[in-house]
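This part of the workshop introduces the protein records we will be handling. Getting from the letters to the tokens is the skill we practise here. An example says more than a description, so a record of this kind follows:
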Amino acid sequence: MLSVWSITFECCNLWGWGRNLEKPSVRIRIIHLLWSLIPWAMVAGLVVFIVFMGRYLAEEQGRLAEAKTSAIKKEVPAVRVITLSLKSHRLEDKINLPGEVKAYEDLRVKAEVKGQVIELHVEEGQYVKKGQILARLDDRDYRSRLARIEAGYKLAQLDRARVAALAKKKFTAESKLDEASARFNELGAQLKEAKLALERTTIVAPISGRLNELIAKQGELLDANQEVAQILQIDKVKVAVGVPESDVAAVFDLEKANVVIAALENRRVVGKKIFLARQPRTLARLYDLELIVPNPDGKILPGMFAQVELVKKVYPQALSVPLYAVIIQGDDRFVYIEKEGKAYKKPVDLGFLTGWQVQVKSGLNPEDRVIVVGHRFLDNDQPVKVIKNVNTPEEIFES
């Protein structure tokens, strides 16, 4: 390819200017230099033009996007929402466990001696007091035995007195007195035993309570240790509940717990702890917990199911929001709050769940107005219209 100088030289020869020219002059050299710089100047200018246009287009695109966003915001109407004003309140971290009602005392009364039932003094279902007669057994054999032993006892008493008098005067050996005394003491023991056996033919209630079942029948011959009746003490009852291993530490210092009896229209009573097992009773790792519950009207019956509320920890000043107000996206949990007519996204750190409320450990402050209705349709910094503000979640459903 011919250089600029070659082209210039040929042109000079063509016109007769450079027939005797052997070496380019200064002017020619300058022209040569300028011609060599023209392509680079054109490239530099093109680069500058491209950079300028790129910046201009970027700025223009940003301006258009901003104008478009502003136009969209102006076109989108404010979302109608309901807000909840947060207030610090007492919050309990508690668990609900199923339990079973048991009689405070479930006693099976048994016959202590053998005999035929000749009288029944009570009926099933009635309330009996401690010491009240339940039944009588035929006591004729026991009375005869008692009379025979009493006669022998009196004779042994007289015999011991005579031998003692003779021994005092040295008319008989001391061994005779010992024999008479032993006989007297033996019959005395038999006399006490016979009186006790006669007393036991009258069967009495060892505790006060409700006669749940009368097992013995009129005319039935009972053996010793045979069941006669069942007495339930239910003026107070026990509620037994199995506490999981993960929660047993929380009930060590427990004194009271709320108990709900579903069968009695969800009656709520307070139970006092009386026992906590130190060993699980099943492979499920449940530890037995027993609560005593007053039952003055006797309507809480053994066998009923109960719901026991065990409070693990109390937070005197806590914040909570309805669970449905929290939006979960992956690992993010956040709510929207309303401020000056706009919705703002607030990440939150949640704690335990109680009912349909969840504790807010951080992220919100008292008096924040959390959007609890309409929050599913919001974006950050979006206009909202508060149609109702409530202080408690229950007010949302009030007209």
